[in-house]
Design a protein that fits this description.
Layout (H helix, E strand, L loop, with lengths): L1 E5 L3 H12 L3 E6 L14 E4 L5 H6 L7 E4 L4 H13 L5 E6 L16 E4 H13 L5 E6 L4 E7 L20 E8 L2 E3 L12 E6 L4 H9 L8
Parallel strand pairs: 1-2, 1-4, 2-3, 4-5, 5-6
Antiparallel strand pairs: 6-7, 7-8, 8-11, 9-10, 9-11
GO molecular function, one term: potassium ion transmembrane transporter activity
Pfam family, one: TrkA_N
Organism: Streptomyces netropsis
Length: 225
């Protein structure tokens, strides 16, 4: 997979390193000569250019990229790069970094963004995820399809503890994608029984989040009252 990353700062270089380790082809683009540090990511391609300019993106052959990541520290730049990547070059997947949470509402399909990653929001979510049991935590928003990646750790008193996945009446527009149980990562099937302490990851429509949280975290009233 070929990936272009706009922004060769610490964030962009870190992403590039991870992708290269996983066998992908990476191009780093930055307009600041001081950011061009080939020795830090020697296996990447480097381009000294303004990623907001069509001529630069032509030189980068953006139409050959499977993914573009707008990872600069400037939200305006990330939006422009995302829009150009999607509308001018038809890049299948565009991921954009959100630096200021106040701008998060802009990072959607109208600006060519498929996935928006808000660093402050993600850090907050990870803190919540680490300390919350029984509360739904939103980890990431997917612009296409109006869906979120959400997590909930099943508390001991949850009504569904011990229930098989296939026997649960899940809300519409909701998919259980992973169960993390201790050090194991499980791909759920209908025969798996949920256990207290399971970390459950869902892709869910925002309108279904409250219903999902109620289903997982609240013990149903005993039939006798």
């Amino acid at each position: 997979m070929r990936v272009a990353i706009a922004g060769a700062g610490a964030v962009g270089r870190s992403i590039a390193g991870e992708l290269l380790e996983n066998g992908h082809e990476v191009l780093l683009i930055d307009k600041a000569p001081s950011a061009i540090s080939v020795e830090r990511v020697p296996l990447a391609e480097w381009l000294l250019a303004d990623a907001c300019e069509i001529t630069s993106l032509d030189e980068a052959a953006l139409q050959r990229c499977n993914v573009v990541i707008a990872a600069t520290g400037d939200d305006k730049v990330n939006l422009v790069v995302s829009l150009l990547a999607k509308t001018e070059y038809g890049v299948p997947r565009v991921v954009a970094r959100v630096n200021n949470p106040k701008n998060e509402w802009l990072f959607n399909e109208s600006w060519g963004v498929d996935v928006a990653v808000s660093t402050p929001r993600l850090m907050s979510a990870l803190v919540e995820e680490a300390v919350s049991v029984g509360d739904l935590v939103r980890l990431m928003r997917f612009s296409q399809g109006d869906a979120n990646l959400v997590e909930l750790t099943l508390p001991p008193e949850a009504a569904l503890a011990g229930t098989r996945v296939g026997d649960v009446d899940w809300p519409e527009d909701t998919a259980l994608v992973t169960i993390i149980r201790g050090t194991r990562v499980l791909t759920p099937n209908k025969e798996d029984a949920l256990e207290a302490g399971d970390e459950l990851l869902f892709v869910a429509a925002p309108a279904r989040e409250e219903q999902l949280e109620d289903l997982l975290s609240v013990r149903r009233e005993d039939a006798t009252g």
